[in-house]
Design brief:
The chain is 43% helix and 7% strand. It is built from 24 helices and 9 strands. The protein is globular. Bound molecules: flavin-adenine dinucleotide. Flavin-adenine dinucleotide (FAD) is lined by residues 263, 276-280, 283-284, 318-319, 321-322, 325, 405-406, 409-410, 413, 432, 436, 438-440, 443-444, 447-448, 451.
């Protein structure tokens, strides 16, 4: 009998440790094994991905490739530049592949893509092996243990998980890897007739360098930002399995931090180092296994004894939230990232889209907001020039580094939606999708729904103030001084409300707070706030009450006396 000839298809599992799918590939005892990554035009051109996230992905690929070569000098991560849907039918045949192995991905696009690839493989007699490994528990199994419904709370997730059992212990990395086989490319490097032209954008766009599936030099090298057509990245954070494992080891070495971690007590204003783990981008690209993370933390918690925190606020609680969103998306599918067609997401008549087909009532352009003023608010929020320094600092931190603390994300998301601008959460989520290095469709959409009180959370009267919430953590305004340097010399008394600073104080600090316009970062001016926050909060809360069908003052006394309005 011929020995298996296996393609291991790396996607968002860019690691060697704790990979059930990679273990399944190696358990086949292959004659040859090709570790490959495919350049997917969906991600390169269609999905909104910023340069920082791409850089992080390339770091992860380069690190993984080095680790593969350490285990077998003839091998590396081979990058193929064609859409997987059209590429696989050709290479499976040309390379005489017997098995295709990959990690399960429950993201909506990934499911669609994988179904096409798996069918094509099976049609040509190739065995397809898929293993879950991206979450603590298999998200599809969670859904089935939850009576086929999405998990919309941590309690639901945990009770479904209880029926499955403990989180599996991590699997050690392999000690060796088989040689790769030959990689002939003597087939048409194009789209087979009749199949969707998923490569067309790759061929017609800027790609002077797109010469061959094997890359400009024909060596299946990892792509560069330049080849992808992106400008240099600005993020200070580097990706890769080696860094992820090192960072995790450093974190768990601090037993007190690990065991007593409570998310609401971590500061959104703390940076260099930040107050939480910053392991999310590694988890996104699979450079860190979530079960490795879970068990390293859980072991510390169990040995710590009294005083250790527990879910939902503990560190393992954060990972369980992640699983909750994955399982919600696994069931709801493509509609999870939008309100339309999503029965679990409450409809709120945010500033309405202006382009509606009057005969059908169908929105034809959801990006046009009926209020020009609100459109301007959105644009200013997106660029970090709202005139609220706390919001602007956070948005600029996001744009520059690709990351923001969870409570920072709370602040800016609440401000854009139900606690300020009353703009659709989907528009905010799209901005996050561009900039976040940890962008995870399930977690991003789920958290935006949480913050906008459209799903998961409904206490819309709890609004974050863009002034007092930041002050609670950072009286001196250090985060603002770092990211809004126009204000860096302003007295702490005014740093959150520079419009209140007398002209002499503004002069002393070398900044002018201007009535109109967006300010001029180099020219030493900063804009006045784009609206009166107190008034906007009132308007938003009343509008949310209406949307929730609550009477003008609601049943909740706390709404009336305002005690919950400001956090
Ligand atoms: P830690 O506090 O150290 O937590 C450890 C890990 O737990 C994180 O790495 C992350 O994987 C997971 N986690 C923590 N909080 C959450 C949460 N609320 N939901 C899901 N997982 C969580 N997280 C993403 O991974 N990708 C996203 O695209 C994303 N978008 C968000 C959008 C909004 C509006 C909000 C409010 C939150 C979003 N989050 C997202 C969740 C959370 O903010 C980040 O996971 C966290 O800030 C990452 O930093 P950390 O690794 O230091 O987290």
């Amino acid at each position: 009998m011929t020995k298996p000839r296996v393609i291991y298809w790396f996607r968002t599992d860019l690691r060697l440790h704790d990979s059930p799918a990679l273990k399944a590939a190696l358990d086949l005892e292959p004659e040859v094994l090709w570790p490959i990554f495919t350049w997917d035009p969906y991600y390169v051109y269609r999905a909104r991905g910023g340069t920082n996230r791409w850089q992080f992905l390339l770091d992860c690929q380069n690190d993984l490739s080095k680790s593969i070569t350490k285990l077998n000098p003839k091998s590396k991560l081979f990058v193929l530049r064609e859409a997987p849907q059209t590429l696989f039918p050709k290479i499976l045949k040309a390379w005489k592949v017997t098995h295709l192995v990959f990690e399960k991905d429950t993201d909506a696009y990934a499911r669609q893509r994988d179904a096409v690839v798996a069918k094509a493989a099976r049609d040509t007699g190739v065995e397809v092996v898929i293993r879950a490994g991206r979450t603590l528990w298999d998200s599809d199994e969670i859904v089935s243990k939850h009576d086929g419904k999405p998990t919309m709370s941590m309690t639901q997730l945990l009770s479904a998980a209880k029926k499955i059992g403990d989180v599996p212990r991590p699997i050690p990395p392999p000690k060796r890897l088989p040689d790769p086989g030959d990689m002939p490319l003597d087939f048409e490097q194009d789209v087979p007739s009749g199949s969707p032209d998923v490569n067309s954008e790759m061929r017609t766009k800027k790609d002077a360098s797109y010469k061959s599936i094997a890359g400009p030099k024909g060596d299946f090298a990892i792509e560069t930002l330049e080849e992808l057509g992106f400008p240099p990245a600005t993020t200070p954070y580097k990706g890769g399995e080696s860094i992820a494992l090192r960072n995790l080891a450093d974190i768990v070495k601090d037993k007190k931090y690990t065991a007593t971690f409570e998310k609401p007590k971590t500061s959104p204003a703390q940076f260099e180092p930040q107050s939480t783990t910053l392991l999310s981008p590694f988890l996104h690209f699979g450079a860190l296994s979530v079960r490795e993370f879970y068990w390293q933390v859980q072991d510390v918690v169990e040995s710590y004894g009294k005083g250790a925190s527990s879910p939902p606020t503990s560190l393992t609680g954060q990972l369980i939230f992640r699983d909750m969103y994955f399982a919600a998306q696994a069931d709801i599918g493509a509609n999870f990232t939008q309100t339309a067609g999503n029965a679990h997401c409450r409809f709120i008549p945010w500033h309405l889209p202006s382009e509606v087909d009057k005969s059908t009532g169908i929105v034809t352009d959801k990006y046009k907001i009926d209020s020009e003023e609100a459109e301007q608010w959105f644009q200013r929020w997106k660029q970090g020039v709202t005139g609220f320094p706390w919001i602007d600092a956070l948005m600029r931190q996001l744009i520059h580094t690709g990351w923001m603390h969870h409570l920072g994300r709370h602040s800016v998301a609440c401000f854009l939606t139900r606690g300020g601008c009353y703009i659709d959460w989907e528009r905010g989520a799209e901005v996050f999708e561009v900039h976040l290095i940890d962008h995870e469709p399930a977690c991003n959409a789920g958290n935006w729904q949480w913050l906008s009180c459209t799903a998961f959370f409904s206490q819309y009267f709890r609004c974050y103030s863009p002034v007092s919430f930041g002050q609670k953590w950072d009286k001196n305004g250090d985060l603002i001084r770092k990211w809004v340097p126009e204000l860096k010399d302003l007295d702490a008394k005014y740093i959150y409300e520079p419009w209140k600073a007398p002209i002499q104080d503004q002069k002393k600090a070398g900044v002018r707070v201007t009535r109109d316009g967006l300010g001029d970062r180099e020219g030493g001016t900063y804009p006045k706030p784009m609206f009166d926050f107190g008034k906007r909060r009132e308007i938003c809360i009343n509008a949310m009450k209406k949307a929730y069908g609550v009477g003008l003052y609601g049943d909740d006394e706390r709404v009336m006396d305002g005690s919950w309005r400001e956090l």
